[in-house]
Amino acid sequence: MNARTDATYLNLIASLTALSRVALSRYGLPGASTIALLSHSENTVFRIVHAHTGQQFAMRIHRPNYQTRHAIQSELDWMEALNASGINTPHVVPGVDGDRLQEVESQSIGTRLVALFEWVDGVFPDERELAPSMRRLGALSARMHHHSRQWLRPSYFERQTWDSTDTIGEGARWGRWRDMPDLSADRIAVLAETERLLHRRLDVFGRSPDRFGLIHADLRIANLLVDGERTTIIDFDDCGIGWFLHDMASAMSFIEHRTDLPQLMDAWAEGYVEHGSLSSAELEEFPTFVMQRRLQLLAWMASHSETDLARSFGSGWVAATADLGKAYLQTMG
Predict the structure, then answer these.
(1) Where do the H-state alpha helices sit in the chain?
(2) pTM exceeds 0.90 for this model
C-alpha cells in the first residue's frame, strides 16, 4: 500500500473510497460492507468484505484516460478465457445488470470504470528462493503464450502494443528514461547507445506470430498468488501485444543487476520448455529483452517518482542501470 500521507493523496483516496461505496449496489452488495484500500498506483484496488456473509472481493477502480472500455473488456475476456483453459486468474464478478464493467459516478471524483473480482487467497512466492519461482513463471508463460496464439479474440478486441518504441522510445507509454534524476551526461550517453543497439537487434529479431502476440507484459512474482498447489496470475492491466520474451524480461524486473541473473534466466527457460519451445535465436536475445525492460522501468521510475516503489530505489539503482548498459554493449554490440 502507498504510504503517502499528504493531504492531496488522502483526499483522493477518500473520494475513491466514496465511489467504491456507490459501486457496491451495482453488484448487489450491502452498503454497510467493509471497504479497505489494498493498493493505489496506476489503478486503485479495494478489499470488500460482505457485511452479512463475510465473503471477500477485490474492487478495481480504473484511472481515467488510460484504457478504453473495450480495452478493459478485452482484458477481462482474456482472463476468463484463461480460466476456462485451466490457467488460474481472478474470476470477474458481473454486476446485477450482467455487465462485468460498471460505469460509476460520485460527486467528488466524477465517473470511473469499475470491475469486481472474486477474492483470491494466497501468498507471493518467496523472494529468497528465486530460481523455483522463475521456473514457475517460465512454465506459466509458455502455457499463456500457447493460449494467446490459439485464442479467438472478440470483434471489439483492443489492447496496447509493447514494441521497442512503446517501451523505450521518445514517446514510450511509461515516459522517457532520460527524465530520470541522477542520470549524468556519461550515463545518458551510454544508455542512448544501448537504446540504439536494442532497436537494431529487435528489428532484426522481428515480429513473426511465433514471437510477437498477446502477453501479460508484467508477469513477475509480485503478480502471482500461491495457495498450496494452486497458482493464480493477477494484474492484467498491462496486457497487450508484444514480444513473448517480454514476459521473460518482466520476470527479472528490478533484479536485472543481480550476479546470478544468468542462472535465473536459465531457470525461467527450463520452466518454459516444459510447455513450449525456445529457439537458439530466442535464447540469444534474452539479454536484449532484459535490457529493454530495465530501461522501461527506468522510464517508469522517472514518471512515477512520487510512489513508494520509485522512492525505494536510490541513485545506486540508476548507476547499476548504466553499468548494465555498458555490459550489454560489450557483449551484444
Answers:
(1) 7-24, 69-84, 130-150, 164-168, 185-205, 245-251, 261-272, 280-284, 286-303, 308-312, 315-332
(2) yes
